[in-house]
């Protein structure tokens, strides 16, 4: 008999799987998600630089996971200190720090969430509701403690801690199982063989229009502009959108390609992110032309 890899009792593991699948399939949640995501996207379109900072574009990594460390860390510390007698104002200070830092962390999560697939947004909504309940309980706990109701404050804190842990579990599912926020081109250097590869005849590349080609098993997008030829991985690093269906245009005088799914924009020259929601760059191939044939090589492949 084959053992369970998770180590969880079978019924618990099955219940968790069923529960998560039920949330992913709960299309009823789309009645909230659709208008809410559209409203968030409209605000983000008006403030694209702020939206990119919240996505984490300047640091090349999603910002939300780093920002949740403050509320989760302070509230976890408060939960431990609540077991210790006579800690003075330490616990209320920790809870207040968590409450104040929750807003920016939520804002970063919200702009990411608005650019996800429906199944991811459903899990994301329940994650947000759970964390909002945690925030409300911690706020109520703080008020109770400041009014001298320590026992009530502690009870509310532990209820909040439970809600935030449930939210964390859902966030883990969203990131690891559903790959929201993950780099969707991490595999490319592993599936492209090292060295130079024949791509196509130079005459097969239309002027200024992106086309899809294969390098081994890896799809790439090639763009020819006069004598310049740029080749990037075709799968968008955000959520695997097809870049060859995207738009080639100039941004601040540099040629870029914009993903048709959520508008991430990458510099053709080197694959760097010019605009989010993507935070990871596109793998960029070296290109040379030999006897009318375009050849490509991915630095670091293999
Ligand atoms: S898949 Fe989302 S921007 Fe490309």
UniProtKB/TrEMBL annotation:
Keyword hit for Metal-binding: yes
Organism: Motilibacter deserti
Presence of the UniProt keyword Iron-sulfur in the record: yes
Source organism superkingdom: Bacteria
Rieske domain mapped to chain residues: 197-296
Stored PROSITE patterns: RIESKE
SUPFAM superfamilies, A to Z: ISP domain (SSF50022)
Protein name: Rieske 2Fe-2S domain-containing protein
Upper lineage: Bacteria, Bacillati, Actinomycetota, Actinomycetes, Motilibacterales
Entry coiled-coil feature ranges: none
Family indicated by similarity: Belongs to the bacterial ring-hydroxylating dioxygenase ferredoxin component family.
